[in-house]
Amino acid sequence: MSARIAGFGATALAALALLALVPRLGNAYYLALAISLLQYTVLATAWGMFSGPTRYVSLATTAFFGVGAYTVAVLGEILPWPLVLLTAAALGAIVAGIVGLSTLRLSGVYFVIFTFGLTELIRQLVVWFEVNKSRVLGRYVFVDITQADIYWQLLALTAAVFLLGWLIARSRLGFALRVIGEDETVAKHCGINTTFAKVALFTISATVMTLVGAIMAPRWTYIEPSIAFNSMISFQVLIMALLGGAHRLWGPVLGAVPLTLLFELLSARFPNTFTIILGCIFLLIVYMLPRGVAGLFEKLSTTAGGKARQRANA
Amino acid sequence: MTTFLTRRTALLAAATCAATLGLTAVAEAQTSIKIGYAISRTGPNTGGAAVTTIPNYELWVKEVNAAGGIKLGDKRVPIEVVQYDDRSNAEEAVRALERLINQDKVDFILPPWGTGLNLAVGPTLNREGYPHLAATAVTDRAPELAKRWPNSFWLLGTSADAAKSLVELLNKLRDEKKIGDTVAMVSIADGFGIDLSSAARPALTNAKFKLAYDKSYPIGTQDLAPIVNEIKALNPDVFIAFSYPPDTLALTEQSRIAGLNPKVFYTGVGTAFPLYRQKFGKNTEGVMGIGGWSGDSPAIKDYLARHKAAAANGAEPDRWASAVTYASLQMLQQAIERVGKIDRAAVIKDLQTGTFDTVIGKVKLENNMPTRYWWVGQWQDGEFYGIAPAKNEGARAAIVPKPAWVAP
């Protein structure tokens, strides 16, 4: 077992080293594409970390992403970069903690609606503050961060997220979450502190999303609420995680990578019909792959007996 | 059985998708000057881009190609356009530009619509050494940005300048005893409204105007009647609204209904749109707004006619950034022709130092910005003329007091 883990670790390290060389290619377009791939990989994986095992569908990705981006907009020129990132992570964790404590008792569709509303709430709060207190709307981010720096930071964050996800899955916390996902009432009866488990994971996942927002912010120079809190991010991350399969740690990557490439291809080749095609693809995913690509792999690798058992269970 | 039915439905959906794709095959001919742009065809910026930017890009390309193309040395080469949708999204805009530069290898790039997106693409265009002619961005950091990115040109000026010109005009009118000194000001709680109101507030107070009303309203406010009624009760001499198109229309309509008819009635973005005249007809007379152009100049008259003829539905340009956008394209063309080859560094140099003959008159940039702008315009007899700054060539005298509203 430990030999397998060591082998896996070595492969992952080698892949990481290879990926770290992407900025050396010297093509800004490929670098931009790679940044986009990593951004969605981290977001979707972080989303899956919480929503996969607990089956709570969260549309709050944008809210945390925006908090991160805005932290950079406010503090970017004042504090040194590592401190800015730390502050962003802390803010994300605090917001997630408060939100988690107050809402994770909600279930099903109420939670979805709340998380969607959360994005709008935070955005309106930022607008209110900027209009009435600071009297500027739209901030400038002039920090000395190159595209390659952004890429490397995202790569490091990707590695950290996978390591974290792997550790959590093997911990008591991960097991508790799986039980909650299967049946929350049973989990409670088993003596699991369900609220603590859910809030803890929600906070970890949200902190990662906040960091992505903070790392990405220097790419745009100019940040205003409508840019930082663009709700499209929530939906894209959700559909990526669903395509990949949120019940596995490595599932969301299988959705994030092909979909990011597909979005790129579509907006390059069909700029005017992009949204129509996107809608068709979403329909196809939901109809054809209800358990995502990860589910498809699992299905293909199970034996005929396993298949029969699955059918019997369904 | 259910599974089978859903599969079939899915296949049907797939077939529909395939049919949609078939309709949009892209064919591009080989030509010599490749010009690329990413513009908002979807998302919140669509309205602005569709009125001000896209028609002018299309008009210019059509006209240049009809004349044989851009003159490089002693031969003319036609323009080939590569365009994308930035979906009103900063990240998308940056990536589209990186694609234009690295994959499509375009020779020149035309900027996106709006302040936010122009700022977002600034660093990329600067790094890659492309000229950046921002014709639809109003930002107070323009002078600083022009220094930071010497390839960028900020043709629409700063909001501080806009507020200053308006207050200067009010000052002059008060000196002429045409208005008193009570001002009511409202602004939209968004970038534009906040920038302008925070510049106008000190300017008005320094000029000893009495600010009787000073409030902001959120984007998307449907009912502006309470604001208008409250202002009417104060009976101000001057009404200033730093508003966006939907609320510009709503405030005007509500003021007409409530009979708020101060001596100076000024509204924000959208006042200069042809739509405003369509909606209010005779009631536009005397209304002031941001923007304006020299409506009497033959170049502008000619531009208006060409724009109307070329646009799909005979649409007119707006009377502010449209002409500036078209002028920026003329400047780019003249700079390329003077350089005589695809040499972006030389073209940037020429834009910084040269003099250009455009629809808005002779343009010579100083520190990458024009030296004159139209900041206040007024509807006079069905045309939106520039009235301030008064020293601009072609400035008309203001009609004050504003005539009474008439029944539509």
From TrEMBL, chain A:
The lineage of its organism: Bacteria, Pseudomonadati, Pseudomonadota, Alphaproteobacteria, Hyphomicrobiales. Keywords: Cell membrane, Membrane, Transmembrane, Transmembrane helix. It is found in: Cell membrane. The keyword Transmembrane applies. InterPro entries: ABC_transp_permease, LivM-like. Coiled coil: none annotated. GO terms for cellular component: plasma membrane. This is ABC transporter permease. It is a multi-pass membrane protein. Its main location: membrane. One of its GO terms (molecular function) is branched-chain amino acid transmembrane transporter activity. The chain crosses the membrane at residues 6-22, 29-50, 56-76, 83-102, 108-129, 150-169, 196-215, 227-250, 270-289. It comes from Bradyrhizobium retamae.
TrEMBL record, chain B:
SUPFAM superfamilies: Periplasmic binding protein-like I (SSF53822). It comes from the Bacteria. Keywords: Amino-acid transport, Signal, Transport. GO terms for biological process: amino acid transport. Gene3D superfamilies: 3.40.50.2300. Pfam families: Peripla_BP_6. Residues 1-29 form the signal peptide. Residues 32-382 form the Leucine-binding protein domain. PROSITE patterns: TAT (PS51318). The keyword Transport applies. Belongs to the leucine-binding protein family. This is Twin-arginine translocation pathway signal protein. The lineage of its organism: Bacteria, Pseudomonadati, Pseudomonadota, Alphaproteobacteria, Hyphomicrobiales.
